[in-house]
Amino acid sequence: MTKRKIYSKEFKPDAIALVRDQNYSISESARNLEVSAQILSRWIKEAKMMM
């Protein structure tokens, strides 16, 4: 069984900002941050709902 990785409160907004503000692709950002593209996409989607 794989352990869930816990990300800091600062990590998620910074990861989202790479895609939104700095125009990196989701796959490129995910690869550089060592998270799955699926998780990063979900974070972006959730952040859009919060706005």
Q: Can you walk me through this structure?
A:
This is Transposase. Belongs to the transposase 8 family. InterPro entries: Homeodomain-like_sf (IPR009057), Transposase_8 (IPR002514). By secondary structure, this protein is mainly alpha-helical. It has one domain (11-50). The protein is built from three helices and no strands. The chain has helices at 11-20, 26-33, 37-50. Helix 1 packs across helix 3 and helix 2 (26-33) crosses helix 3 (37-50). The longest helix has 14 residues, at 37-50. The mean pLDDT is 94.
Helix and strand layout, with pairings?
Elements: H1 11-20, H2 26-33, H3 37-50
Helix pairs in contact: 1-3, 2-3
As for the number of domains, it is 1
The number of helical elements comes to 3
Distance between the termini: 35 Å
What's the mean pLDDT score?
A: 94
Residue windows where pLDDT falls under 50 for at least 5 positions: none
Order of helices and strands: HHH
| Biggest pleated sheet | none
Q: What proportion strand?
A: under 5%
Number of strands: 0
Q: Which structural class best describes the helix and strand composition?
A: mainly alpha
Give the overall shape, derived from the CA principal axes: globular
| Overall radius of gyration | 11 Å
Instruction: Work out the helicity level.
Output: 55-70%
